[in-house]
Batch of 4 targets.
Target 1
Amino acid sequence: MKEERTIKIALAGQPNCGKSTIFNAVAGYKAIVSNFPGTTVEYTKTKIKFGDRTIELIDLPGTYSLSTMDEAELSAVKFLLEEDFDVVINVMDASVMSRSLELTLELIEYDIPMVICLNMIDEAEKKGIVIDEKKLEEKFGIPVVKAIAIKGKGIRELFHTAIEVAETKRKPLSFKYDEGIEREIERCMEKFSIKDKKGRLFAIKILEGDSFFKSMIRGAEEIEEGKWAEAIVKERHALAMKTFEEVARIFKGKRSTLENRIDAFLLTGWRGYLFSISFFFLVLFLIFSLGGWIEEIALFPLDKILEVLSKYQGPSYRLVEGLVQGIAGGIAVVLPYLLPLLFVLSLTEDIGILPRIAFAFDSIMHRIGLHGKSVIPFVIGYGCTVPALMSTKILETESERKKVALLTGLIPCSARTTVILAMIGFYAGFYAVVIYYLFNLFIVAISGRIIAQFTAPAPGLIIEIPPYRIPYLNMVFKKVWFRAKDFIFRAWPVLITGSIFFSLLKVFNLEDGINSFLKPFTEGVLGLPSVVGIILIFGILRKELSMIMLMAALGTTDVSSSMSMGEIIRFTIFITFYIPCLATIIYTWRNFGGRFTILAAFFNTFIATLLTFLSKFLF
Amino acid sequence: MKTGKRAKVKDFIGGWGLRRKVMALGIDPGDEIMVIVGMEEGGPFIIENITKGTKIAMGRGIARKIIVEEIE
């Protein structure tokens, strides 16, 4: 029998090269999302069975180069240097091969066992690019496998080859720069006595002026950037071009002008907004009509149980009530909103709409100090805050993700919309609701501008616009499941526990105590009846419930009979802006950390209190 | 440069970091490019790199640092 050691394979490649497609195509059920040590950039891992071997597959973040200048690149570099793995699969989009080769050359400098996967050869052929993989193999001394990952072609062979390379530890042939640079590399290695295996890599990176590598070698910090940085990068670039010319032949391919015409039609000027906004409306309309319907059906039995339970006295009934409430809270998020919204998000990513919307909204978003891409979490936020927070992963830097996460919490999700419609809509009319939503957007924009004063501005826009692609539903479903799983298995149990904990308040009859304890705040500052105290606390569980609880507390379904118009508006404002729901808090805690969660809760409550307090003078 | 006109990339000016970023996205001196969306609007625009067969959206700040020469 063969040894049963797990083979660790890492996937590296540029953005949009189909790396994640390969990952998803083989990912088993045990896929785990984890953080890179020292950063918050995530990478995904999975264990798969391949024949009689177990493979641990790691999907590194997509990077154009390995210069450690942004978080994703730094994470990939740290992984390659510090983690233990057997082989790297360098996935290349064959249709943009000349550019992809630069990353390949950088990977070769790491002197690690490697396989090249020439992905999307069908698209390359469409463009008239024919690649001689044998020549490429000779040139780099490592196996090259052609594939069309999205159709599942070449994937088995790729992993066969990768396992072979992992066993033989076959490394690529190192390439030489011109003499001047080589001499300098030699000198650098001697100066810092780093003659070992990775010495050449370190020397090159130090000469390139890479601050991460410099910080790892004593004395290297003082080396100034100098002329070598430019010389090395230019030479590597030239080598990539030369290699491309050697291994590929270009026939006059068809240039797709149709796609350009579609883009020009959809994205020029105001049409860009029109296109994006109609897309948003379509999505939200579907989510609201479909989601509301699913929610009603799914929650019907649970709500019935709750109704029956509420008729009985005794602590055990209250605890069961808490349990059911927690399960219902999870269902209310997952089924109608989380899964459909993640589905739409994955679909827009795979079709290629997402970067186009980011482009269309870039000017507006930059006014509040954000990248065009941040419009996506905002729109999803109108459906549900949890998938909106998940979608912040499309943003490039941690600080941007946090900025957007803070603002997304202020967007009224479907649960809060229920309250807005039932309160302002019912008692003040349709136009009041429209005005209320505009007011909400205004507050989001102002908050964005204020936050922008304290943080670094969003980087200038430069993103690739990938070709339109037909999504493969199988892949889309896998992606949705992958993203939703973390919430379902980790956040939901906490939600249920929290819900049971809340029910203890009822068991020990703390409601009146809490109401009178909060009275100075609810009555004094917010100008609301003191019975809302407990409602605001329970509202954290599921915000749409605060409506029903309010009616129960007032003892009437006609809220206006015991609350003034001003109180109704203030109640809605506070419910809309204060602490996000428990599901959101748990997700934020798990993905952004405790300190940020507390900051976000404080930020929301502060805005809610301020707005409610100020509106006392208006209504 | 106007939408629909072709041009050749001549050179980059400005910081090394920016230049690397632009080059990493596959825009090199000598490449033939064409603006396909948005040059007249004042905001970001999309170019097609005809030589490489890719499309890139970029803001004005970055675009100002790429020197091009129009092709008739």
Target 2
Amino acid sequence: MPDNFENISGKIRTPILEVRDLSVSFHLLEGVIPAVAGVDMVLNQGEVLGVVGESGCGKSVTAKSVLRIIPCPPGSIDSGTAMFEDRNLLELTEAEMEGVRGNKISMIFQEPMTSLNPAFTVGDQIAEVFRFHRGMKKSEAFERAVEELRRVEIPDPAKRARSYPHQLSGGMRQRAMIAIALACRPRILIADEPTTALDVTIQAQILNLMGQLQTDIGMSIILITHNLGVVASIADRVVIMYAGRVVEEGTIDDIFACHHHPYTHGLLRSVPRLDRPSEDLQEIKGIVPKLNDLPRGCAFSNRCDYVMEQCRQREPVFKPIGSGHKSRCWLENRPW
Amino acid sequence: MVSLSEKKQGYSGEPYLSVTGLKKYFPVGRRSLTGKGAVVKAVDGISFHLKKGQILGLVGESGCGKTTTGRTILRLIEPTDGNIVFDGMDVTHTRDMKALRKKMQFVFQDPYSSLNPRMSIFRILKEPLDNFMGHMSRSDKKDLVVQTLQTVGLTADHMGRFPHEFSGGQRQRVALARSLVCSPELMVCDEPVSALDVSIQAQVINLLKRLKQEYNLSMVFIAHDLAVVEHLCDPIAVMYLGGIVEISPKEELYSSPLHPYTQALLSAVPIPDPVLERQRKVQLLTGDVPSPLNAPSGCTFHPRCPLAGEECRLQRPQLVEIRPGHSAACFKAASP
């Protein structure tokens, strides 16, 4: 799979999407939940950016805020900018946003059953994209939809276009979702846990397909996942999130071989690995804190093995520790 | 409590749990007048033996029948055919299932739906004691509940709380405590870690490892994640479409898998290390898992198998021991 991806590290990086200081909160009965607190994220042309973190760390909220599909209320985007093609996505009107969503920036979701409309055929749902964004006639759009299904390697696409989502298997539905998302050849694809609901053999097929299509179309991908194996197999750069913050950012080699943040370290050591059999798993102690009840100072301080006095006082700054490698930690050197 | 008449005379007691020719067919749709309707062969003739203190890993993709197998062993679902012998007692035909249930416990996948939201943790843990150990005094029960909570890493303070106050990992600990409280000898765990985040998953895996040693438990551990199974189980059985295709000691299964399905499954697991990922060769399987409603003729894997020949289409291969303790249901593996 990795051979399908050009190594971009040698090339000049041109940012295509720049998220700066994004803060999103949800106003719920139990209080204000700061789901995303000052996230900076840059996606470069032609790269796959992996966004990794556990549930509730704000990875999906960040992506959905960029597309402005956060339900407001209860959600609200409190601050930040998201620059795409010289425009701030967070300030566009709803009509302007409609020209971006599904056209220039597309998203695929984790659960392909709930994100497809059960009342329409798969072909109609792909055709809708062409009719909306390209103003095509119904019959022409449907023909293009069949083409798109062929492109995502669905066998017998003409027949499958007339199927309803419930008639397809999980892997096929995810392929149909990809077909919808890529119909307009977007510049950015946001894939939110695209393979989490799928079996490993199907996951391998979908990742392979995404890799091929990425090189064909020349798009950039934001891959949101909690699976470090998936990230290692297709990402170029990785962003690690914890409690609504980016805690570490770097190329995959930075993150896997010389990570700096104790959370990244803990995450990597807690994953059972097939290539290191029977090694004892190192757990991260404690539980993920509630977002409206974070420890003082560093959000990870109550679970960190290397916690120091200043960690409990002040939140660390997100500082560079190498070229393109940044970490939000007070530690000067890696203790491991 | 178990009547002696149910103990098979002269039974050596060597395999602790012994399952032979287990079948579970679910009727689908309306039955015709002849009483014969379509059936889904969820489990179609599987056999395995488990020694005391072993953890058998049951791996497979969704819909392969692993959960049905687990539930049928405890007769949460009545088997269609086959024999289950546990500790010398015939589970399939016993009339005193209650006495057996004390010794055989089940842990469910989803800790959010398997704990009654209206019961406090104390009541949840006391219920099995009321059920199986009626003779105990209330204070003894309370002591035992506290002790069990401590074994799973919770404290006595948690007793008065309700499930919604706990995180996923803590709930799974409560579910484990509920199974452990009446000192079972066999536990069937149905994907107990797949709903948890990685850092929490490692905590629960380590806990299960420890419990197995402390209680000398035997377990059937159902999972889809091969890396998790590798860390916990020995031996391991791989299921595909209602049948076991390969069963083997742990080391051998991972180092030299015999069945082409196991080989593809193992190669599809991404490794969280970019350097190894670049070298990994994925054996992509074509197509999806067929529906168990109309399973393929002969070997159920033949439509997706790279090695399939004529005999695979016609005849169903039996599980044969190819190396000591290592069996596979494949004509090609048997005679390479």
Target 3
Amino acid sequence: MSYFAAILPELILTVGAIVLMMVAAFAGRRAAGVISWLAVALLIGATFALIGAPTHAGPVFGGLIGADGFSSFAKVIVFPSAAIAILMAHGWFERGTEHANEYPVLILFSAVGMSVMVSATNLMTLYVGLELLSLASYVLASYRRSDDRSAEAGLKYFVLGALASGILLYGISLLYGFTGTMSFAGLSAAFARDGFQSLGLLFGLVFLLSGIAFKVSAVPFHMWTPDVYEGAPTPVTAFFATAPKAAAILMGVRVCIEALGPATDAWRQIMVFAALASIFLGAVAAWGQMNVKRLLAYSSINNVGFALIGLAAGAAAGASSVLFYMAVYVVMTLGAFLCVLWMRDPNGEPIEDLASLSGLSQTRPAFAAAFAIFMFSLAGIPPLFGFWAKLVVFNAAVKAGLLPLAVAGILGTVIGAYYYLKVVKIMYMDEPAAPYARVRAPIEGLLMLAAALIVSPIGYLLIGPLGTLTDRAATSLF
Amino acid sequence: MNGLPVLSILIALPLIAGVVCLFVSANAARWLALVTTLVAFAIGIWMWAAYSVGGPQWQFQEFLPLGGGINWALGIDGIALLLTELTLFLMPICIGASWRAIERRVPEYMAAFLLMEALMVGVFAAQDLFLFYVFFEGGLIPMYLIIGIWGGAERIKASYKFFLYTLLGSVLMLIAMIYMVAASGTTSIPQLMAYDFPPEVQQWLWLAFLASFAVKLPMWPVHTWLPDAHVQAPTAGSVILAGVLLKMGGYGFVRFSLPMFPNASAEFIPLMFILSGIAVVYTSLVALVQKDMKKLIAYSSVAHMAFVTFGLFALNRNGIEGALIVMLSHGLVSGALFLVVGVIYDRMHTREIAMYGGLSNNMPGYALLFMLFTMASVGLPGTSGFVGEFLSLLGTYRMSTWGAIVATTGIILGAAYMLYLYWRIAFGVARTPEAAAMPDLSAREWWLLGPIAIGVLWMGVYPESFLAPMRGDVGYILQRVERIAPPGDSRPTPGKPQPEEHLKLLGAAY
């Protein structure tokens, strides 16, 4: 029975999602609102179920899945941001002709996938979770069937995602072939015992990490990100940029520490490269972007780089810093996408051109202020909270003796600051363009306000509690 | 002290008022900002009165742990006290200077200035390393907006340049701070001031801090953002930039570089003297040929700040005290000079020196005050400029005679470019009819410039009021650096005292 208690959140979501899918199939379009609210309720319920669940149950089901502090923390990030993705879509799909019924259900399934990913303690479970997420994501990306860009995004995501899954699977099979086990504990023991005696192990490790790098869109596996982010409907983009990204990075943390812990020296080089490449490429490539979603796509690549710095630092401090960074990143990014969601031309149609933001501070001061806060925070400028997240990551890197990495990374923030400043400049210093249509969405407004408050200096009050939580979650990996 | 969190109040008051400003009308925002800054100044006066000179090193201390390695730790010593007073004193003047000059988006403007005030007080009051950094860097955001929204024609480029330059310098300092905290296990600035890092580590940390403070001060060759930012910023923005923001660089050297890395400071004296020497001569010469008034004063700021670095890295009492007085004096004088420029810019909307002339005829009051501030900038005895520059040069001489010789040319060149400027603006005949028709200072402008004039004369005639609070703190820094400071190359031999009978004879003669 305790086995099922350990996976209570996943059970709630799975059963709920299946029931809702039936409702969605037979109830028709008018049920869309109800389904959305029920899905949100399920996600909130699953989050609260985490409190009841034994957080230190350790590996269950023969070591296939582990419910510990780390996975709980990851789910606390993932479930609410999935719920917000559903809330964001509420107003969005009312305009169009698309069927909105399946959207919450797909988000629920991907939430189950992410939940399995972050608690997997076996490569096979990990793969199953990842695929569940991916399949739901491919459909979500192409959700606006009538829109060419959305269809293109879905196809592109599917083809490249399938390739990445193949690479991942190949890596898993190599590791299995050379060690005879797929459990994290077994792999760790094998690495500790034999080290890198065979090239096959090394290849397995590289392929495994490449597959994960694709999912988190770290350079050099980032190519799909701008196109998919641009083409997918905005709520879906917001979802891609937050929950799955956080889940994939935290999954990577668990794999690197629990399964590949004894091989730290081997994967650290990969992480250092991926981190720096992501930071610099994300920063430089964003300079010329004139589409706000593409800009935020590069921003997310850039931010993944900082999280990877924390991962490269390794040890409990490093893992804790990644958790801290992702928690703050998710809030900032959701806030930024809520702002994008409100970018509507005078006819109420969504608009993604950066130039349309011109002079926003004069036509819509509060909206512009919120957007500016998210931009400065993503850039890591104090006194906003994004700065503290970066500080925590660099702190871990310096403590791990990776001083050159920290210096290079922090120089990257200066390059990145340029394009965030550009958005602020357009909003505050340019002459006003045609004003946006007002969006009547009190929930989105409240969410935006909440995110802006967390990101503002008031967020510093959270440093203590959040730090304690991330430390506790990170130590459960060791 | 008496339990009242004065420093927190000084930070919170403008912050809250700034937020309120956003929701009120333009006129209400003006009055709210003025009243808030005046109240803050009044609190500042009270704080100065309550500060016990010669008392404990850190006063008005507050401590509240925020967890996760950052503490709300505030407290000031004499040096921070005076710089805080400077900030609080200049703020109402800035608001007054913007009263008519800013017509567009007034509530946001006032909010940005009040936010700026809160952050600047925070910089001088912070006793936690990371808290300091948050305040130090946080100032970039309001200043970026002030330059970018209310600035001149080239404002966008200037605001980017200001932001990115300063950020680039500061991030290296952040890494150094993280390292220091990891190595010493404390984020408390007073504790770190007494912590001895290994000399070879000190070098790197010192250089990382230099990157930040050299940009902020600014030192040659990283000063190029300053002329752009000054020229493009609105008058009050220039006042704050020159009056307070540049002082953060000097304050950083005093608070961090000297006491925390004394070995490295001693080792890098030649570097600092060479850079300062180049700055003095080069920027003074550049100032001489400027056609734009604001640009001229901006370059003169760089030259004056070189006196600060000369004095600080002389590593003796005269030098450091002189440098601190130069900082305070320059805060008043350059602020006043930007206001003086602003007065005529508001009337004619041009900064071209060639458009003016003969203003002493139609604006006698203006010409009088302009003359006073010109003289203070040149360093005429009786003004604040003299005290600071004299002490700083004296200190420099005791460390390096060559350094002093180069630095002294700055005084001559300073006299040249300032008097040349004054001559072209105030004397001769008006070159344009508009210049001849300008009215003299209004009552508001007298209120802005008058208090600064009093401050300049006070500091020049009785500098002890300003030297006394910082004496003990300079002594503390000297304790840290003097053991390592190299001997100076000047060997002044004290003369023999005159025989007593001789003096009596002399006395009789008079």
Target 4
Amino acid sequence: MAKAVQLENLTKKFGDFTAVDSLSFSVPQGSIFGFLGPNGSGKSTTLRMMLSLIKPTSGHIELFGSSLELERRSIMSKIGVIIEKPDFYTYLSALDNLKLFARAGGLDFTKKDYDALLTKVGLKGREKDKVKTYSHGMKQRLGLAQALIHDPQFIILDEPNTGLDPLGIIELRELMLDLNKKEGKTILFSSHILSEVEAVCDHLVVIDKGKKVVEGVVKDLLSNEDLLVDVEVGNFQNAMSFLEGTEWAADIVEKQEIESSIKFNLSKNRLASLNAFLVQKGVDVMGMEYRKRLEEYFLKITNN
Amino acid sequence: MRYFLLISFLLFGIQAQATDAKKLIAAVNKKMKAINDYQATVGMKFDLPGIKINEMKGKVYFKRPDKFRIRAKGIFFLPKDNPLRNVTSLLEDTKSYTAVISGYETIGGKRCAVVNIIPLNTELELIVGKFWISLNDPLIYKTEITTKKNGTIRSRNIFAKNSKNPLPIKVILQIEMKAFKVPKLLAADIKKKSTKGTSNEKKTGEIYLTFSDYKLNRKIPNSVFTAK
Amino acid sequence: MKEFWAILKNELIKTVKRPRSFIGFGVVIFICFVLQAALYNDGKEMLSLITNQIENSISINGTVLNGNLICYILLQTLIIQMPLLVALVTGDLISGETSSGTIRFLLSRPAGRTKIVLAKWIAGLFYTLLLLILLGVIALYGSRLIFGDGDMLCVNSTGATIIRNADVNWRFMYSFFIAFLSLSVVATLALFLSTIMDNSITPIVSTMAIIIIFTIMGMFDLPSLDVIRPFLFTSHMISWKDMFENPVPVQDIINSCIILFAHIVILLGASIYIFERKDITN
């Protein structure tokens, strides 16, 4: 599969502190690529190096087969980006801000083009208002508009969900999927809302303390992962008496009598069987919860 | 100042017959009375310490007894008004001073008596006035007026040859000036280095006045001397 | 080239539309108005502080307090007020975008950093020029409207020069050019400080601090400062006043312009060098 982005042994040191340490990964062209890591892992530094906002101490970055160091200009015209919170010239209107970005990208937009873009991100009708009057969510939408304005091939979205209401999050998810599936754009998506990452990404990389921890196809990485299932029962002693000595006993990882809760480590396809077993034995199952797979996986591999 | 010019302009052209001081002055006064007013074109050139200023032209007006004005477009400098406003009338008031011939000199090829005027009233601004009056024609070729406030102002008068006009064609005024210094802060002067010298340092400045196109006794209205 | 014009247009729009740009215009109008009104009422008394020095022995005739002199007085504000107003906008050109975060989006575009710095610098100079033109129009033509024109009495610490009215216009024209060059140094200095600092205020304050310190160093006649004084840009910032000397010290003015121009080149070069290598971590 062709690579949209290739990082090779990328390192960044700030004085004695190594923010990114020999990081290598690649983003397949046409994928939605999850870029994960705990706070302070070097994600932001890596993204900034990809955008030439920060110069690497060593290593190499290639985008669309071209070296960023040598062909920055042509590469940057193919990238759209939201890095952390989007910032604008608050004394200008949204439309004026977009005009600045369009002009900087060498674009000759008509009113129709701006209208289409604003409609796409849900800001039509508010474009003449000064950005300082915008809510956080509206700024996020405007950030998305400026990222898409020049129809980039590669889109970097760093925490684009911040400040969006649930409807906005869903709309963003659908937009990302549209851009990827219908327009073939490559998207690098970084978010702390792991359920969203799991919902849209097909590839991911996880970094921690500047180093790569794992990289691969999402479903492959998560397929063998068990769930941590928290079962709340009506009578703890009664339930335990039925579970001991059965196959289920080996799956118990934690027991909390005071909370009347038993935690199991098992695959998703065995959930229904466990439930059926307890109900059959007359145990009242008050509730059954399991942590999201990616969330659990992430915590596990980053030692949290 | 106007009075020195008045003396310069009005007292000349009188044929001084007497070598006696009072007779000389009387002859000057007689010529003064013949001119009620005059106007002329005046060219002004300045050589004043610490002041750079280009030449300029204007119009000079005089009307008896003491109205005097130079009107010109722009800024120009003249010696400060002599506190003695009525030098003309003082000269005509022969009882208010003593006139003595202190010597003889040749000025501009003319033999002149040096007439010292000493006011009898010591409270006046004038301390002493010296007039170099030619013996052949009662014209004042040079003056030296010393006052309490403004020190000594000298003038040198040049007349046209064979002119019927008793008024000079050129007057050179020499003034004792104090060199002035404006604080650097007030002058907003960062670049210039301070020069040595105190504000009390005295220097001599000169003003050159050239007169032409005289028009005498044309009944100049008073408004000429008051209008802006 | 088309890309550069596009970036430059963006920078010009941002510079002119910023609220703080209007502060500069407002201050210039206000100060000119206040000074003109004050001089209209008390100008003669104020002038007498200076003319009394001259009038020790001679009298000054003619209209000294005229529009040309008022303009000359108002231009004295070039020393303090104008540099501050210029620094207020130019000191924020890069550091303001760094602190607000818009620098990330600016540098994520295809245009290189050198072009961006140059475009911002030109926008800063354009603002400076607008400010100076506004000052010039109000100071010169506004003053002439109120006070009339006439010969100009120019005083410095060693004497006075009278400039004839017919001789004034071309002198003002060249003096404004020199003033623009001086303020361009301020703008470039502020831009330079803006590249190395990440917040909005520090470059502005630092620029003014440098100007004040250098001005003070230039004002004291100390031998130990004689060596560096000719190279301080503040020593040449008032070279515009040389246009009102008689004769005009052409070589001195050329020397001042060369030093000012050298400052601009060095500061701009340093700005580009630093900005090219700067990590944007905000």
